[in-house]
Amino acid sequence: MTDVRDPHGTLRGALWIGGAQWAGKSTAAQLVAGAHGLTVYHYDWHDARGHRDRRVARRVAAGVADPAPDLVWSARGPEEMAAEVLAGFPARFGWVRDDLGGLFAARPVLAEGWGLRPELVAPLLDTPRRMVVLVPTEEFRQHRLRILPRAGAIGARVSGPARARANRVARDRLVAEDAVRGARRLGVPVIEVDGSRDAPAVAALVAEQFAPWLAA
């Protein structure tokens, strides 16, 4: 019987890169896909566009207004912010499943993004080796924050920019740590990115992990 959520087998055949923001997931995915003729699904791109429209529609249907930027970034601590993000990932992953389930691809689709959590992806996997989690070391995270202003940017006008930025950085660290815990609990390989390898070398590690399906 055909799975209505995965009529073309795209989800069952996908390869997944999850993990932390600013760990090089998109770059690694593009390099692997370019070398092996794969289609890449960029979670962040869809989440910021079509999925955002779904979030807005869900808020409107529930009669809930978008919170003010200060409430989002400044009024709460990073622990509460991280908990809210983690609680929202399951619904957002449902939209990812809808996107991928509607695709047909002769080669595996390579999906990447921070919302591709090990505990959400695991039920779709025949083996944990179909997924890898990329996370930066703390030193590399700080390096990325120094050279990429957008890595700590808020994207909204807030009354306390410094506090909001610090909250975002701390929140992202907590969300990344949760991804690592989930990956290790489920047997999903974790690759720590410390800056000692360039992007092609990190992509080579990912390709090595996915070798059985890249060669098929």
Descriptive overview:
31% of the residues are buried. The longest helix has 26 residues, at 161-186. The protein has helices at residues 10-13, 25-36, 43-47, 50-62, 69-73, 78-101, 118-121, 138-147, 161-186, 199-209, 211-214; strands spanning 15-19, 39-42, 109-112, 131-136, 190-193. It has eleven helices and five strands; from the N terminus they run αβαβααααβαβααβαα. The radius of gyration is 18 Å and the shape is globular. By secondary structure, it is α/β, with parallel strands linked by helices. The protein has a single domain (10-214), classed as P-loop containing nucleotide triphosphate hydrolases (Rossmann fold), CATH 3.40.50.
Number of strands: 5
The percentage helix is 40-55%
| CATH architecture classification name | 3-Layer(aba) Sandwich
**Secondary-structure element order, N to C:** HEHEHHHHEHEHHEHH
Total number of helices: 11
Number of domains: 1
Which homologous superfamily in CATH is the superfamily? P-loop containing nucleotide triphosphate hydrolases
User: What is the residue-mean pLDDT, rounded to a whole number?
Assistant: 93
**CATH class descriptor name:** Alpha Beta
Which consecutive residue ranges, at least 5 long each, have pLDDT under 50? none
Tell me the structural class: alpha/beta
Shape: globular
Q: Return the CATH topology.
A: Rossmann fold
The separation of the N and C termini measures 25 Å
Q: Order of strands across the widest beta sheet?
A: 2-3-1-4-5
